Amino acid sequence: MKFVPNRAAILIASLLTLGTAGSAFAETQWHMPTPYGDANLPTQIANQFAEEVKSNTAGELVIVVHSGASLIKHPEIPRAVKTGQVQLGEVFIGIMGNTHPVFKHDNIPFLATTYDSAEKLWSAAKPEVEKQLKKEGMMLLYTVAWPAQSLYTKVPVNTLADISGLKMRAYSPSTSRLADLMNTSPTTVQVPEIPQAFSTGIIDAMVTSPSTGVNGQAWDYLSHYTDIRAWIPKNVVVVNNRSFKRLDKKTQQVILDAAANAEAKGWAGVRTKAQEDTQTLADKGIIVSEPSEELIAELNKIGATMIEEWKAEAPEVEAILKTFNQ
Ligand code: PCA
């Protein structure tokens, strides 16, 4: 008679196999909340980073990416990493602007408007950002830049007078200030709520990347994209210092190498992404135009005001600007 194992026997056998595999090494699981959804370049890079760490530690360190603020709400991610509630996480730098002025380097209009100058600004700001993160018990792993931030409206914009009094989306302390200086009223809205905020009239305008416009299908609720390319903000991925130190040296190095790869991929990818997504906006029927000279002059003036205000906030800011302007 042929021996036919019953289902329970198969189940037990497979559990035993799993048990053996599991005991061959101790798998550590880390949780990584991220603010944006899976269609975003930063989330794709986070997934590749986690994959690389898993494969280069032979599965000993598994980073579980929780995208789209599904585990922790975006504004609470820095605190979750700081307190060790999670081991690492991704956050938009500008959102930490009220924690210390060095984080504001990320959202200052017309300070660095090309990808090359944004990289230069980042090298100038990085040591100060790392210092502040360290005080908060965190270490910087890598950054991912967003495409340059431009103006989305329901009306053509030739000068600021065309949007005066409108409700403008803000996503950080600096963008609230910018909205004030543009004579618009700032309203904080997180990315997933953008479409609804437009259709219910909570906001009339926003400044963000072509990518965020594409992800939120901006053509459904607005008509004009004025390509002011005002600043190039970034996300950072940070790790809790104690969690990192508990790892052996080899695993630490795997993480640092994967982080360096992620950083390089981000800066390389963002340039193409910016072009592709701007094209998609146009293809979907949004009127994409270059800003008028008048508009640029008005915005540059606001940028200069914001740089002055920012400079007065902390001596570290002077240091960043000095290095950046060298
Ligand atoms: N998208 C994110 C951050 C910057 C960007 O391009 C947002 O709009 O909140």
State the domain count. 2
CATH class categorisation of the largest domain: Alpha Beta
Q: Helix share of residues?
A: 40-55%
| CATH homologous group name of the largest domain | Bacterial extracellular solute-binding protein, family 7
Bound molecules: pyroglutamic acid
**N→C terminal distance:** 85 Å
> Helix and strand string, N-terminal first?
HEHEHEHEEEHEHEHEEHHEHH
Radius of gyration: 23 Å
Task: Give the beta-strand count.
Answer: 11
Helical stretch tally = 11
Please state the second-level CATH architecture of the largest domain. 3-Layer(aba) Sandwich
Low-confidence stretches: 1-23
Average pLDDT value?
93
The percentage of residues in β strands lies in 15-25%
Query: Given the C-alpha coordinates, what overall shape results?
Result: globular
Q: Would you tell me the structural class of the helices and strands?
A: alpha/beta
GO biological process, one term: transmembrane transport
Keywords: Signal
Organism: Neptunomonas qingdaonensis
Protein name: TRAP-type C4-dicarboxylate transport system, substrate-binding protein
Helix-strand layout with pairing:
Blueprint: H1 7-24, E1 28-33, H2 41-56, E2 61-66, H3 77-82, E3 88-92, H4 115-135, E4 138-145, E5 150-153, E6 167-170, H5 173-181, E7 185-188, H6 194-199, E8 206-208, H7 210-215, E9 224-226, E10 234-240, H8 241-245, H9 249-283, E11 287-289, H10 293-311, H11 315-325
Parallel strand pairs: 1-2, 6-7, 9-11
Antiparallel strand pairs: 3-10, 4-10, 5-8, 5-9
Helix pairs in contact: 2-9, 4-11
The site of pyroglutamic acid (PCA) has 8 residues, from loops.
